[in-house]
Design goal:
The complex is a heterodimer of chains A (398) and B (398).
Chain A lengths: L5 H15 L1 H30 L13 E6 L14 E5 L5 H7 L4 E5 L3 H6 L4 E8 L5 H27 L1 H7 L2 E6 L3 H16 L6 H13 L3 H6 L4 H29 L7 H25 L3 H29 L8 H9 L6 H27 L1 H5 L5 H8 L6
Chain B lengths: L5 H4 L9 H18 L2 H28 L1 H7 L6 E5 L6 H8 L3 E5 L2 H4 L9 E5 L5 E6 L5 H24 L3 H8 L2 E8 L12 H22 L1 H13 L3 H6 L4 H29 L7 H25 L3 H24 L6 H4 L3 H10 L6 H24 L2 H4 L2
Parallel strand pairs in B: 1-2, 1-3
Antiparallel strand pairs in B: 3-4
Helix pairs in contact in B: 2-12, 3-4, 3-9, 5-7, 9-12, 9-16, 10-13, 10-14, 12-13, 13-14, 13-16, 13-17
The chains are: A alpha/beta (398), B alpha/beta (398).
Chain lengths: 398, 398
């Protein structure tokens, strides 16, 4: 590809035209309103998590299942979580038939003389009748198990205390000294913030589609191809305009995030890494746009491709949080996450992400140029995806 | 797109169908053919299979990593490595820790073990001068909850044994103190047991509470571009005038155009329900779920067409639809993760919350039908308003 600087003229045209559109500016600002919504959501979610101990990233699921509880002593019932399980007090009359009919998830039956038995130092009998035709049975079983474990520990402690007042105070329990931030909090604070930083990169794919597929649909592609400018320069010019718009939005999002109280350290490096990641994403979008016959195809194509790209960005970041894996740094999201958290990122780790982005940028733009240069893809009839892949790898001749 | 007379006048078996319905069917057929000939759409349909398998697989892994019993079954004990000083080798604490299937690694002192905490060690255990067990544990480790539970179990057993040795209880008293509760589970409806890939609370909560609504709505989200293209695309290609000149009213055009994508998306969702059943994630109440999805689809399509009427180009339409999807995701999925006493009454009417309850309940309560009604009414209103406003020529800007 023989490049000169003509592509910058195309970049300037595309950039100026996009920013002149009032509707685009409206959408641009609406994207910022989404950011505000997300900030409110994440902050309340994080506050909720930090206020409760041992919480995990599971849905809230209020009244997910029901459980009949027969506990005349009332000692066990108070330990069952009433949020996820809708507790129905029972006298035992019809709870078994209700469980059999599937009207309730189970029947938790504590022996009626439980308090008397505890006072006499006897074992308390508890039976859980569990409906196995209900897939939510494990939720009830888990909750009841937790209740019994908690109550058993309390009873054991009380028995021991009454037997040996002097020693038990020193020997029960564990002193736990925690190091590091808990995983759910890390997921909220680090991964969610990373997602917010990378989100703008996925909001401008339609501009590429319009500027590539639009040329096909408006039949102006022929004129563009006939101009004294190479296909590579056309795509690069159009692509860089979108990268510039993404860069503008990323900058605004970072300013808003910092304003909202998020701590972003190494802000310049974070910004550059996020914007740099936009290049291969634009390249991938260009491939889809170059291959697609119309907007409809291209729109569906980028929806699927972006899900895969998001997966590629997030999975290594999650792996890094759980295992501190070195290879996770291949994802720019991992590096960005570490940078804004103030971690020191070694040069080889940084280079791993940068080289990968660079490589993917070259590969995607090369493929997009190759597709855009082919008459059969630009004007039809277009080869199928499998045939095309075989042709790209020279396994099959054109 | 031009609608030929032969496409709706010819078939003999359509003689008894009213003329207007025949026209709608003819347009719907043409739109269906367009969709089925769209290679990228077909590719995206298959990509969803991998998304479903990936999502289910990820939840299985997360569930195993958070459940001590499942961790024991999987045999991944090397991940649960803790460090101890060598002088604890002969202690009964070690026996209890080994019973919990934790991998133990000995160091001369805990100071020697400290550099490895957070790397190869999840925790370090030592005894204080007073005999209390002190645990330094890496809170950020993915196996923190499992390790913490196992250590607590071992330490509790160790502390109880130590106290019992001093107190001089008889055998029956020791039994009561160690196990103050006699708990058993009676399995009801075992012959109709719901088959589950993993009978675990975390798995069930995450799969029903988030993954299933996500999977069932995915076909509708991915079809949004087809909806906008069917109106804006026609406007851009200047084929809409021709379509409106055919002997069809505006509402017939909009129904004929939206029906195929609604049906295709619904069929995909129903197929994914079957696929999830094959993966041993049973989905209940498919008819009611289908009804909710059908009306939600109507609402989505209505909004998509409404947006198409307001914009001039596919670029604008795609930008606006991306925003709409983000807002829809926010409204539909945030209530699944938020606990709110104030809004819980409203959350019960959110379609995704309904989907969670419908998909996971073998027996449905009558009041559930009441919760479904607002979704049906609101979706229908959105669609009808769209159809009504579509009649105005100013909206389609001819």
């Amino acid at each position: 590809m023989d490049l000169n600087m003509n592509f910058l003229t195309i970049t300037r045209w595309e950039f100026e035209n996009t920013l002149k559109s009032k509707k685009f500016l409206f959408i641009f600002l609406m994207q910022l309103s989404i950011l505000f919504l997300l900030i409110v959501f994440f902050n309340s979610f994080a506050a909720n998590m930090e206020s409760e101990e041992g919480i995990s990233l599971t849905p809230s699921l209020v009244d997910f299942t029901t459980l009949d509880i027969e506990d005349r002593g009332g000692l066990f019932k108070k330990y069952v979580n009433p949020e996820i399980i809708n507790i129905i007090s029972s006298n035992g009359n019809n709870s078994l038939s209700r469980t059999e009919k599937g009207e309730t998830g189970g029947w938790f039956k504590v022996s009626p003389d439980s308090i008397k038995r505890i006072q006499n130092g006897e074992v308390v009998d508890i039976v859980l009748y569990l409906d196995y035709s209900d897939p939510r049975r494990s939720v009830i079983r888990d909750e009841v198990n937790n209740t019994i474990t908690t109550m058993s520990a309390v009873l054991t402690k009380e028995y021991l205390k009454s037997a040996d007042n002097q020693n038990t105070s020193n020997t029960t329990g564990v002193t736990e000294e925690k190091t590091g931030e808990s995983l759910p909090i890390q997921l909220i604070r680090k991964v969610m913030l990373s997602v917010l930083l990378f989100l703008p990169l996925f909001l401008f794919g339609n501009i590429i589609i319009d500027s590539v597929v639009g040329e096909k649909e408006r039949k102006t592609g022929e004129i563009l191809v006939a101009m004294p400018i190479s296909t590579g320069e056309i795509l690069l010019g159009k692509g860089l305009a979108v990268v510039a718009i993404s860069a503008l939005q990323v900058a605004m999002w970072i300013i808003v995030l910092i304003g909202a109280g998020f701590t972003i350290q190494n802000v310049i490096q974070v910004y550059l890494m996020v914007v740099f990641t936009a290049i291969p994403i634009v390249g991938l979008t260009s491939i889809i746009a170059a291959y697609s016959n119309n907007y409809k195809e291209a729109g569906i194509g980028i929806s699927a491709a972006y899900i895969i790209v998001v997966g590629f960005l997030i999975v290594p970041a999650l792996t890094y949080i759980s295992r501190n894996s070195y290879s996770s740094n291949i994802s720019p999201m991992t590096v960005v996450m570490r940078l804004f958290a103030g971690e020191s990122v070694a040069l080889p780790e940084m280079l791993m992400a940068v080289i990968f982005i660079l490589l993917m940028s070259v590969v995607t733009f090369k493929i997009a140029t190759y597709l855009f240069e082919r008459d059969d893809i630009l004007f039809g009839p277009r080869p199928g995806p499998i045939k095309l892949i075989l042709q790209i790898f020279h396994i099959k001749k054109r | 797109m031009v609608l030929t007379n032969s496409s709706y006048k010819n078939p003999k078996n359509m003689k008894n169908i009213p003329k207007n319905i025949r026209k709608i069917i003819a347009l719907a057929r043409k739109e269906s053919r367009d969709i089925l000939q769209n290679k990228i759409y077909i590719l995206v349909v298959f990509v969803q299979i991998f998304i479903i398998m990936g999502a289910v697989g990820l939840v299985v892994v997360a569930a195993v990593a958070s459940d001590p019993a499942l961790m024991d079954q999987s045999g991944i004990t090397s991940a649960l490595t803790i460090g101890l000083p060598e002088d604890l080798k002969e202690s009964s604490l070690v026996e209890y820790l080994e019973e919990e299937r934790i991998t133990l690694k000995y160091y001369k002192t805990t100071e020697d073990a400290k550099p490895f905490l957070g790397d190869e060690l999840v925790a370090i255990i030592d005894l204080s001068d007073t005999g209390k067990v002190v645990v330094q544990i890496d809170n950020s480790n993915v196996f923190y909850p499992v390790t913490s539970t196992k250590i607590n179990n071992a330490v509790n057993n160790y502390n109880t044994e130590k106290t019992l040795k001093k107190a001089g209880f008889n055998e029956s008293q020791v039994k009561v103190i160690q196990n103050p509760v006699n708990f058993r589970i009676v399995k009801i409806n075992q012959d109709k047991e719901a088959p589950l890939i993993l009978d675990n609370a975390y798995f069930v909560e995450l799969i029903y509470g988030f993954i299933i609504p996500f999977i069932l709505l995915l076909p509708f989200f991915l079809a949004s571009n087809i909806v906008t293209d069917s109106v804006v695309g026609e406007k851009e290609r200047k084929t809409f005038e021709v379509l409106l000149m055919t002997p069809m009213s505006s509402y017939m055009v909009i129904i004929g155009k939206s029906l195929p994508i609604l049906v295709f998306s619904l069929i995909q969702s129903l197929v994914w329900m079957g696929f999830l059943n094959l993966l041993k994630v049973p989905i209940y109440n498919p008819v009611l779920l289908g009804l909710v999805l059908f009306f939600m689809g109507l609402g989505f399509i209505g909004l998509g067409i409404f947006i198409s009427m307001l914009v001039d180009s596919t670029k604008e339409a795609n930008s606006a639809i991306t925003l709409l999807l983000v807002f829809a995701t926010f409204i539909l999925f945030v209530p699944l993760f938020v606990k709110s006493d104030i809004f819980q009454g409203v959350f019960n009417f959110i379609p995704t919350v309904l989907m969670v309850k419908l998909a996971s309940s073998p027996t449905i309560k009558p009041e559930m039908m009441l919760y479904v009604i607002p979704t049906l009414i609101i979706s229908l209103i959105i669609f009808l308003v769209t159809v009504r406003s579509f009649k105005h020529e100013r909206a389609i800007r001819l």
